[in-house]
Amino acid sequence: METETIHPHSEIQPSTKMSGPADDELVRLDRVERIYKMGDNVVRALDGVDISIHKGQYWSIIGRSGSGKSTLLNVLGCLDRPTGGTYFLGGTNVNQLDDDALSEIRGQRIGFIFQSFNLIPQLTVLENLEVPLFYQESEPGVAKERAERFADRVGLKDRLHHRPNELSGGQQQRVAIARALMNEPLILLADEATGNLDSKTEKEILTLLDELHQEGMTIIMVTHSDKVADRAGHKLELRDGKVLKITHLDRSPL
Ligand SMILES: Nc1ncnc2c1ncn2[C@@H]1O[C@H](COP(=O)(O)OP(=O)(O)O)[C@@H](O)[C@H]1O
Ligand SMILES: [Mg+2]
User: Fold this and answer.
1) Does 36 sit in the ligand 1 pocket, CB within 6 Å?
2) pLDDT tens for each residue of 190-241
3) Which residue out of 32, 33, 35, 36 has the highest number of ligand 1 atoms within 8 Å of its CB and is therefore the one to mutate?
4) Ordered domains of the chain (ranges, CATH)
5) Mean of the pLDDT values across residues 49-54?
6) Is the CB of residue 217 below 6 angstroms from any atom belonging to ligand 1?
7) What whole-number distance in Å separates Cα of residue 35 and Cα of residue 204?
């Protein structure tokens, strides 16, 4: 099975909203490619990917090492640009944005969490959380208020003045999740976010993601674990840069 979406296979596509994404369609990829050329060597990291993700959905992306998962997440997160095809984010054609506009979207619309937490070791939890708002012209006190709110949300209210090395791996990932939420993003992207955690801590983090999803957050999570992938309502399997299969999982109400 490829995907269930049917696209006009024309090379000449109007560059703005073509058939117009549906209102609650947050992400739409039309035949997206990411080709790396190194000398004579051409790697088709993404090779004609079509996806449609709606607001509030929880997706997992799974596939072997090298199948294109991180490349796809980086494109979705505007860290990288497709070399072909079209990416609409909230109805905006991302291909048409310049670097400044792209980094603005990344800073304001996307929350990222990674396997390696990526916290700043010299800063406290509170200060790490304030970082995403540092370059934004927010009212004094807004960053601190939000940082306290999201620290509380992830269960770390009593750790605000600790540094990352005084926290467990699970707590550090909670800080990273709170930091990803600071800009109130449209979408939360996670790349192997539980890859460094023991299974009990992994469960706690997955439960937190479940809760955020129930609160309305759109989540896209890369994992190589089937068990983790099955927590999401929609599972996309990649192989050699192509969509091998999309499964919409039946989830019983919680
Ligand atoms: N910056 C790069 N330059 C060249 N090739 C790359 C680069 N990044 C990824 N690739 C190649 O693209 C393919 C997909 O990589 P990646 O998206 O990291 O896969 P995954 O996350 O599924 O392990 C691999 O063959 C990888 O070697
Ligand atoms: Mg990867």
Assistant:
1) yes
2) 999 999 899 999 999 999 999 999 999 999 999 989 999 999 999 999 999 9
3) 36
4) 25-248 (3.40.50.300)
5) 97
6) no
7) 37
| Ligand showing the shortest atom-to-Cα distance for residue 242 | 1
Q: What is the 3-state secondary structure (H, E, C) of 31-81?
A: EEEEEEEECCEEEEEEEEEEEEEECCCEEEEECCCCCCHHHHHHHHCCCCC
CA distances to 62, 63, 147, 215 from 170, in Å:
22, 25, 18, 21
Residue type at position 74:
N
Give, in order, the Cα–Cα distances in Å from 78 to each of 103, 193, 219: 7, 18, 15
Model pLDDT, residue 238: 97
- The encoded tokens of residue 135 equal 């370059």
Distance 39 CA to ligand 1 centre (A): 16
- The finding on whether 226 has its CB within 6 A of some atom of ligand 1 is no
User: What are the tens digits of pLDDT across the range 150-188?
Assistant: 999 999 999 999 999 999 999 999 999 999 999 999 999
What does the pLDDT look like over 113-136, one tens digit per residue?
999 999 999 999 999 999 988 877
